Amino acid sequence: MTDFPKAPPEKDESRYIACQMAVETVLQDLVEDAMRRGWEETEVLSAITEVADNLMLAADANRDLDLLLAALRRNMPPPNLAG
Q1: C-alpha distance from residue 54 to each of 48, 60, 74 (Å)
Q2: CA 68 to chain centre
Q3: Does residue 22 lie in a domain region?
Q4: What is the chain's Cα-based Rg?
Q5: Does residue 7 fall inside a structural domain?
Q6: Would the CA dihedral through 10, 13, 58, 75 be positive or negative?
Q7: What is the DSSP secondary structure assignment for residue 53, as one 8-state letter?
């Protein structure tokens, strides 16, 4: 596993860019390693984009499920999850 720097405090204005920079370093290493093993750069970058999109969709679905479960526990109507 690659060393990933510790995140700045949540209120830090540079937190998002710091995360991007940390992720970029790890992804560059991953792309270079994949290319050394015979993959084309565009294939690797496309795969990373697809995987990242799937992870985001899964995180969103998990958030929606958590909201629904919380509403059920409170015996309340579920929130409107559209959008």
Answers
A1: 10, 10, 30
A2: 22
A3: yes
A4: 18
A5: no
A6: positive
A7: H
17 or 62, greater pLDDT: 17
Which tokens go with 59? 């995180």
Q: Which of 1, 2, 50 is nearest to 25 (CA)?
A: 2
| Residues with Cβ within 8 Å of residue 78, at least 6 apart in sequence | 67, 68, 71, 72
Task: Please report, for residues 8, 9, 50, 55, 76, the alpha-carbon distance to residue 67 in angstroms, rounded to integers and kept in the order given.
Answer: 28, 26, 26, 18, 11
Residue type, 19: C
Specify the pLDDT at position 16. Answer: 92
Q: Tokens in use for 14?
A: 């540079």
Q: For the chain, how many structural domains are there in total? A: 1
Ordered DSSP codes for 46-69? HHHHHHHHHHHHHHHHHHHHHHHH
